[in-house]
Each structure stands twice: as structure tokens, then as C-alpha cells.
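Task: encode each sequence below as C-alpha cells.

Item 1
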Amino acid sequence: MKRRTLFLVWVLCWLLVSCCFFPASAQAASSQYECSTAEELHQILLTHPGSAISLTDDIIWDTCTPLPQVSAPTKINMGDFSILIPEDYELYIQGPVHFEGSGTVRPLFVVEGSLSMEQQVEITARGNSATAIFIGENGYWYSDLSSVFVDGPNSTGVYFESGPLSEVTASRVQAEGNGSVGIDSHRPLQLVLCNISSEDRQAVNTSEPVRLDQCLVTPALQDAEVISRSSVMPEERIQERGLCFPQGVSREEVYKTALSYRLVCREEDVYDLSYLTEFLWEDSLVDYSFPGTYLATLTPQVPDWFPVVLPSLEIPVHIVDPGRPFLRAAYQLTDSVGIQFFTELTEAAEIHMYYSADNGTSWNDILELPGSYIDCYGAQVYGLNEDQSYLFCLTVTGGPIEGISNVLPFTFGEPDPFGGGDNDGGDRTEQELPPVSQDIPEMTVPSPPVTPPQAVYPPEGTDNTSDTPDSVEPSVPAGTKTPPAESISPKEEKNSQVKEESTDSITAISGARLRQLLEINPNSVLFEKNGISVEIPSSFLSSLALSDEGLLEILLRKTDDFSFQLSVTADGKEIVTLPEASVSLPYTPSQGTDYSLLALVHVGTGSEEPVTYSDKHRIASAKIYETGSFTLREYYVTETEKAVSAAINLPVLLFVFLLSAVVIALLILFRRRKMHETL
């Protein structure tokens, strides 16, 4: 009996010890996946972004289905295997994805069809005579901001078989090792905005013609045609007119904005290039939930290796009131100016557009100029003089969108692509352009084209009784056909007793304005301060049933880099419980942070909500169900934990199993021996 008890105790101890190791092993192994077909690779990337994936066989990509874009950096270990793309098929990859393998048995990618790589796709081949990408005779390779690395003697980044002229755009190819080469081509090449390097003698090995269009090649390639370019501001006049967004737009939508830089060459008969890019936004002063004009700095999202400098932009950002007309932009046409409205003007009784050639001293109706016209979408103005700066203003009577618009500046004349002159092609005299911020003439027009946020919305604690107006509106030109004030802006007059405001931490809006926001945002309304935004369901805000004179007050105060306070007050009554609301805040993980384990903690109740993190925009997001103070909790992965996770405890498990087998065998032998002795 004692022996049986001893045996059972030992088995229980063994199970207990094993269980101590299994969770760590399971956790480490949970993010490890294997695949051997195109369908398996697609499914893993779709359901487990950010995981580590290993190929167990060559993959033939006999489909045109693109790989899903992953939300977190994902590594694919290819080992000695390859991905083969047959002719008439295409593989489209969006990063951040990193493929790594040996590339010695065969290239990591064999392209007889088409391979397209965008947004931080990296391919790395390591080993003697390794090749990362092989382009067959009819193969095609497209790349945008993607990289190819090879490391090893006699290695090749990209190999082109003989074939027709190929163009490679915005790619980085780097080769390390004796005898290594970045690109080995047996066909004519045109490299555009590429960075090709090799630590040995040749970055590009070819006997065919090569055109280097604003490329950085190290070592330099002899006998190549070289074109040098410089960048100019994107979207001509963008710094003059700015960007427009509807009130309540989400920050994520704003960040999708892409602009095209012009890359120009001073040589004759060389066409300009256009490069489209997204930006990193410095927009902490922009309140997307309150109408106004703000300033933001935009930095192009291009890597350090990009071979041309794209300058950052400081531009006005217009947040447009949904109930007021707004002039979005003016465009230079052949012999006229096209003006675009931000919103279609429906059901309007009267629409008038005025122009001023003397900085607002006098105004005239554009319809006085022969050929000019106006409709509900915009206007076209003929008869303007070149080398002349103009101001435009719109008045609307009747319909859901009415009142007086912003004042839009425009200089008639072609812009100088090299930045000099006066926006007229560089062949006319210099002239003084109106300043960015102007004093408002008494009884005459314009608000300044750009009003700094601190001028329109003074910081909390400052004296608001100065001469600076809370909002800036253009006066109506004297002698023009102007509707009465009560018919232009009944909304403002009706709500004159409601104190709407936007400070560093508070947004206060009337019930009437809230209803306007609910009309254009049927799902949720966004409120934002200091980069922290909260989206509250429209159905909940509608259920508050505020009158036109009611007041909704949202407080969003940043207390430190990881914490903030949220309060919601409706007509003076504080709201504690919320339906499912979404909150986002700027966040950069500390070193060693596992951002897959981030949590947003409510300071008062201690409740936790999981956090999703966008590495691209450095934003952490979570769902919340109550107001109060919140803090972002990080989880640090120590070096010891990393080592244990990487090892997966396999040696320890094997040792436990072997030791258990030996002990069990000894117990069985000992028991049989006792039984024989008894007999």
C-alpha cells in the first residue's frame, strides 16, 4: 500500500512540475505558425498578424489574391524554401512584413509573373551565393518604399534575366559580402528614386543601358545616364489654401491624407515626376470637433534612405462648420480660375460670389465679369489679370447651408517650379504678396487666410476680453446685394446666449450644433484635445435630447504621457456611464514594452480594457464604458523572459520526460523484485 501511495505521489509531482513548464512553452509557441501553401500563408496573415511564420515547403503562388495587409510587423522565415510566382499570376504584398531565408538553394522569390511590394516590405537573403529575388524573362517587379538585403560572399540582391526595359521605383537594395552585387541585370534598366549599394566593387552589374533618375548608387555606376531632381511643395498652393475637413472628422481619416510632391529637373525636355506620400502629423493644436482654422506640421513618411529630401510642410487646417458655406480651393486654369465649394449648396435661394483685387478694400460680383458663372458646386471666373492677387468670398441665402463663407486668397499666374519669383513661372517681376495674417479692415472683408489657434481660441486661464475676436468672419462688401443678417445666420442669432467654446481641454457646443454634427455623423461624434480623441455613439448623444440652447461640455485633459481625464456634462449634469465609446491617444512604447499586452486602466474602479496599437501612426486605442481618469499600463519584457520564450523550454521538457521514464522504470523493477522476493 505504501509503495502504491508513493508511486501516485510521484506521478502527481511529475504532473505538477510539467504544468509549470507547459504554459511558458504554450505562450511562446502560440505565436509560431507553419505553412506550405499560398492559402495557408494568406490565412495566417489574415488571422494572426504580428506572429512568426515559417515555411515548410516551396510555395507556388498560382493565384492573384493579394496577401492581406498586416496591422503589426510580421516576420516570415523562409529557410531554404522559395515562393514561386508563375507567369500570368501576381503576388501583391503590403508591409510591414519581413521575409528572411538562405536564398542559396534557389532565390527566395522566383518571379515569372508579377511581384508587387509596398509599405515597408523587406526581403533578406543570407548565405554564400544567396539571391533574394530572381526576375524571369517575362517577370515584373514593382516596389514602393520596400527593401532588399543580401549578406554573404557572391550574393545578389535582385537578378534580372534578359528581357524588355524594366523600371524599378523607390526601392532600396543593399548587398554585403565579398563579390556581392545589389542588382545584376541582363536587360535595360530605368531606376527611379532608388538607393542601391554594395560594400564590394559594384552596386549594379550590367552591360545594358541604365538610366538613374534621382538615384543614389554606391559605388557609382559608370556610363549610366543620370538625372538629378529637386522637390517642390506638393499640390501647388497647398500652403496658401490649406486642407479642409468636416467638423467631427476622426484623426484616423485625417492621417490618410496623401499629397504629391513634384520632382523637377532644370534640364530641358525632362518631364517632371510626381511622388505621392502620406505624412506624420504634428497637430496637437487642431481641434477636429470645433470649427476653425489651425496650423499643423506635416512630415513626409519616407525612410532615411530615400534619395531626395521632401521638405516638411506647415499648412492651415480648416475644420468646416457643416451649416456654413466654405471655399475649399481655387485652381489655375488656362485663362480663368476655378473655385471649389467644400459642400454642395442645395436648396439655396441665392448664391453670390465676390472678388477683391485690392486686398478687401472694394468688392465686386464675379458675374459682372463676362463668361463667369456659379452653381451649387463651385464657380469659374474669367477676366482676371495675371500677376494679380485676389480675394474671394461667398454669400448664401436659404437652404441647410447658408451665411458668409471664409475669404480665399489666390494669385493668378503659373507658380515657379523652383520656388522663386511670384508664382508666375519665374519670368515676371517680384511682387509683395499679402501676409499670412492680416488685420481686418473696419466694415470690410476678410478674415485672415490663416488664423493661429491661440488667436481664435485663447488658452485656459488667459484674458478673453482683449480685442481679438472669438471667431473671425468677413464683412460683406459695401454696395453689394447682401441678404439681411437674420436670414443669413439664424442659427447663430438663435443660439447667441449659448457659450460655445474650445480651450486646451474643453469643447462646449450647443444643442443646435450637436444636431448638425449628428446629421453628418450618424454613427459617432469625435471630440479631441491634445491628440487625445474620444468617439461617442451618436445614438447616445441624441438620447440626451438637448434643446437648441442646451450645452454639451466635453473635457479631455492630458495629465501625463500615459494618462488623461474625461468628463461629459449635459446641461450641467455630469454623465458617468457611457455606451461603448472609443478613445485614442498618442503613444510611443518604452524600450522593452510588449505592446500586445497594453491595457487602459480606469484609475477609480481599476477596470482594464485591452489596447490596440498602431505602430505606423503611434496611436493606442481602446474601448471605454465610463468617464473618469485613465492611465495606459505597459508590460515590459525582460531579457530573461525573452530568452526563456525563445528557448521554449524544450530542453527542460525533454529532461523531465527522460527523468520521469527512468524513475518509472526503476519503480516498476523495484516493485517486481519485491513481488518475487515475497513469492
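Item 2
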Amino acid sequence: MNLKLQEYEVTSSVPGAFLEVRQVVDISEIKTLKEEWLELEEFNPNTVLFQSWHWCNNFIDFAFGSESLSPIVFTVRKFGELIAILPLCIQTEKTVTILTGLTEPYQQYTDLLVSKNVDLKEIGKALFTEFKNVDVDYIHFGQVRSESALNSILEDNAKVAGERDAAPFVQLTDWDDFESYHKSIKKKTRKNMRNARNRLEKTGELSHVSADGGELLQSVIDRAYEGREAWLERLGITSRAFRRTDFREFLERFKQPDNTGVDVLAMAMAHGGKPMSDQWGFVYRGRYYAFMATWHEDYEASSPGKLHLSEVIETCYERGVEAADFMLPRSKYKMTWAQNAAPVCDYVFPLSAKGWVFTNIWLDFLRPLAKKALQAMPTGLRSTLMGAIIGLLKRGK
């Protein structure tokens, strides 16, 4: 991914609202927002990792000096006080320019950081007034949670794009400890998982380890990437992140979490000493975000991902984590252990004629047809076709 961080600034005011909205794009000025940004995070109990200062700053340091991407951090002030931050960027895909989340496609949620006791409608009006000053074809807000501040603004101003989904999560503080939580799971599920473990233990010992650094973290990050890449290839499907030529390079940064400011947690389940299932993610303000997982295909029949989630949740309890967020998609194996799922959707807002055509004809009509046709293909044919397409896309970047 060739990224270029352009530097410019636009300032505007919203008459009668005492709000000042700025587009901050100069890298050095974005850096000066650190203390106010961190303070805003403390005021906002629902701040998610992917709009936190450390996550965004880590990405800017990674992308600095490359081409095709321009960060735009929207700040909203009232009487000079910072009351909202929306970290976005401009990306170009072929002939279409998009205003989207700052760290897309690596972020898993898009949200707005807001202070306490603010008028979200007032902030929304101010932001959408300013959005129209950005020279792009359309705005894309990916994976917006229904309970988020950003969703409150978008549901009346933008349109939903694509399929709605939900992100399974476990609010661990609803139970005193793992044992109490485990008893809340259906008896049949617990029996099935116990039987699966017993069958595996007949041929080898099951073990589970976790780490927030060191060799285990590094190994899990590597195995998860390679396993997920192979799984996508086998199924003949793809993801925007894996199509990026520098995705793995970005993940390498988290092998040394002290250098990023982002806390990392890696977990590995083994059978007879052989890696069976891996998962790693981030811990931010008491919440674990499951970023990437994989399992060895030799254990497919034993539901390794489902077995591992139990260990993941127990590890979160041991480490004092308050919530485990398994993020999109709403997979069946996740819902085995998660009793809740937060509704999530994408929003788009066209700003040009080209943007209107792209969002209304391609995103709403042609893309779903293409996806349906692809899914109907035999796995082997789909895998071959997608491999060729991905190769072409990577060579074109």
C-alpha cells in the first residue's frame, strides 16, 4: 500500500451553534492533539480502540512518507474546548476517492470520540456541513456499532450500505468469575465441549498458554496470519486487509507492543505439543478485542475455534479483563460462548455524481449480485478465480 500523507488544513464555523470544526491534516499538528485526545478518551466511556490516540498514532507513524492516503482528523470545539474527534482519511480506489476511517482496512470499528453531555445532533450537523468541503466522491463509515455515538449521527444523515451484521461479545463483569460464567452456558453445549476435549486427550495432552509479549506473541501473530491467509485461499474468498501488500508489515509492529502503546494479548492452544488453535488481539480500557484467529486444519472436526474460545474467556477473567469482544462476523462458533451481539453496519454518503453512481448502483445492486454469483461457484473454481484477481490487484497497487 503506497501511502502519501498530504498536509493541508481547513477551518469552518457553524453559525449559532458556537462550534468550530477543523480538518487537521498536518502530521505535526495531529501530534499536538495527543493530550486533548487522551483526555477525551477518558471522558468517553464507549471509546473503542480503533479511534484511540495510540492506535491512530501508531498507524500514522507506520504510514508516514508513503503515497495515496491523506489523514484528516476532524476536531469539533465549543468555546475553544475540544468536544469531539473523528479520525478519517482520504483513500483512492481506482478512480473513486473515499473519505473513510483513518486506519481502514485495519480498524474493526468506526466511531466518534465525544465529551460528556454534548448535543450529538448539533455535532452531527456541524460535521456534515464540513464533510461537504472535502473533495471526495463519497464517505464510507465501516462497521459502526448501533450503540455508538457515531451511529446516532449517521442514522438520520447517511444510508446503510451492504449487509447488516453483529459483533458477538461477553460482558465478563456480569459474572463473578469464570466458573459462574461457564455455568450460564447451555448444558448441552458444555457437554459437547467436554466430550470433544475428552476425545482429543485420548491421543495427547491439551494445553493453553497466553502472553502479552515475547516469543509466544511473535509466534501466534505469525501463525494467525499464515493460517488465515491459507484459509481464505482454500475457500476462494478474500478480505480488504489481506489484499494490502503491507498488511503483514503493519502487524509486525505489534510484536513489540512497548513501541506502539497498544497492549496485545496472544493465546495458543496445543494438542500433544502441536499448535491447534491461535488467537490474538488487543486490550484497551478493560476490553479485549479479538483481532485474528486461526486453527490447524487437521483438527477441523474437533471444532478447535469453539474449544479455544472457552480458554480465551477464562484467560480474560484471569487477567482482569471486563469484556471480550469477538467482533465481526457473527459466526456460529462465537455465539456458542457469547450471549450478546452488538448490531453493526456500514454507512455511505455520496458527495459527487460519481459517488452517487458508485454507492447506489455498484454497492447497492451490482456488488451483491457479483458476490452471490461468486458464492455459488464450486470452491475450487472460486479459489482459482480469486487467486488470479488478488494477484492482479496487488500488482496494480
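Check on item 2: Residues 1-16 have pLDDT under 50 and may be disordered. Residues 289 and 325 are 5 Å apart (CA to CA).
End of task.
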